[in-house]
Amino acid sequence: MSQLPIKIQLSTLPNNPGVYQFYDEQQKILYVGKAKNLKKRVSSYFNKNHEHGKTRVLVSKICSIKHIVVPTESDALLLENNLIKKYRPRYNVLLKDDKTYPWICIKKERFPRVFYTRNLIKDGSEYYGPYTSMKTVKTLLDLIKSVYPLRTCNYDLSKKNIEECKYKVCLEYHLKNCMGPCEGFQSVEEYDRQIQDIREILKGNFKTSLQYFKTEMKTLAAEMMFEEAQQVKEKIEVLENYQSKSTIVNPKINNVDVFTIISDSDFAYINFLQLSYGSIIRSHTMEIKKKLDESDEELLELAIVEIQNRFKSISKEIYLPFKVSVDPKLKVTIPKLGDKKKILEFSERNAKFFRQERFNQIKIIDPDRHTSRIMSQMKKDLRLTKEPRHIECFDNSNIQGTNPVAACVVFRNGKASKKEYRHYNIKTVVGPDDFASMEEVVYRRYKRLLEEGEQLPQLIVIDGGKGQLSSALKSLDILELRGKIAIVGIAKRLEEIYFPGDSVPLYLDKKSESLKILQRLRNEAHRFGITFHRNKRSKAAINSELENIDGIGKKTAQDLLKNFKSVKRVKEASMSSLEAVVGLSKAKKIYETFH
What we know:
Layout (H helix, E strand, L loop, with lengths): L5 H6 L6 E6 L5 E7 L2 H7 L8 H9 L2 E6 L3 H15 L15 E4 L7 E4 L8 E3 L5 H14 L11 H5 L7 H4 L13 H15 L4 H16 L3 H21 L9 E8 L3 E10 L2 E11 L6 H15 L6 E3 L11 E3 L4 H28 L1 H15 L8 E8 L7 E8 L2 E2 L5 E4 L8 H18 L7 E5 L2 H13 L7 E5 L6 E3 L2 E5 L6 H35 L6 H11 L2 H6 L2 H8 L1 H11 L1
Parallel strand pairs: 7-10, 10-11, 12-16, 16-17
Antiparallel strand pairs: 1-2, 1-3, 4-5, 4-6, 7-8, 8-9, 12-13, 13-14, 13-15, 17-18, 18-19
Helix pairs in contact: 4-11, 9-10, 12-13, 14-15, 19-20
């Protein structure tokens, strides 16, 4: 049977929740998505113009559509997650299963051992985790071992073996790290009470252990067993110290998962925190590479399902920064203030720190990807049609109206290209007129590039506000370049960014990388222009000091400086030295002026 046209396939889709799958002409799966209403969601791909290029490419490749109807949207979310992991479609974000996370195991045996493992064996043992940090696992195990003496041997401590005295206590017993259950020195009941306390600690609940030890300490003190009471007190201090470090919010916040998301044009970073009795017992940040124009809501929905499955979360409540579709069995809280809001902000900071760390790593490992990400972000932030791989920035310098000059600096791929910097002496403007000077230098720069067939920049940055920007635009109009090159003005006071024809400036986030590049451009243009202006003034001052001498012209002043290198040396020169350069008559005038 030949493939039905897309229009017919769309017309027969149901209005139910479900999962849709797009296939190309070779029947290779391209994309998997979920929808509250299959017909509306799938039709939206074909009846609107997509800004994102990859979405347009995806739609152009779709030859057939398959769908699975499910009872609820949360069922669709779970099914979508499973299908993505099974088929790994090209246009879906990839969720990688990591099988190497460590777990803490309470072994199913008489006198259970407690240890960490990376392998889950279905033998009835209890597993807590997975933990995203081995440091956390070791800290917890060290805490447990410092408070509870547990066996580490793998002997079969059956009742029969102990009664038959099959085993002897080892060095761990003599070091007081084990109470010797192998010889019957510790009862099963006492050992199991310790294991029950350990279960609570692994869940983040220290209350039971603290209450037990405080009661025991008081009993021992009342019986005048002060040494033993001191040992119990030390255990209480260990537990309280660990709890104070791990508790950052109200201990009443229990059995809660927290999710936040930070994203840019290419990647999203989802932070996950798991809370138990006010303690963070797990933290993990997931990086997702965007494939299409996925929204933060879509990515967060996907990540919640993935992370809760991966970490076997049984939390009944989740804190989120905004509302998304999740399993209706979960209680969703969007905190506005108080402890709940603080923990949400804490999670968001973790996501930001992770993103910055990744940026720093990429800058070292893959500088091309780092550059591409910044260029893509600048394109988005400054509403450009092209990535600004080639940027030029202009600045005027005329201190107290003297020696007006201008500077043009060039950045390629976000970095200074100093060999392309240019200085300009203002020629057509009389007096200090920044607007006219800007108009002149922009005209001269791009008239020359056009005449020489050189590459034009994708972005021009003007140091100044609306006035300087308007002056630069006049030159672009004369050269018929308006609309062919993007141009913005950046004002110093509040870092406002002005666009042609828009009286309302744009304010970028102060920590934005796009703003930082614009600031670097502006500062570099200012530095380059000021240096040129200062040199020009100094040279003018030196020449004028020599030229003020009666009978000494510009040419003679230049000859003197060429030979003596500075005015100071000219002043200190002997009569004979001066005569050798400029002749007797002029030498006499110079010598008499300075002596």
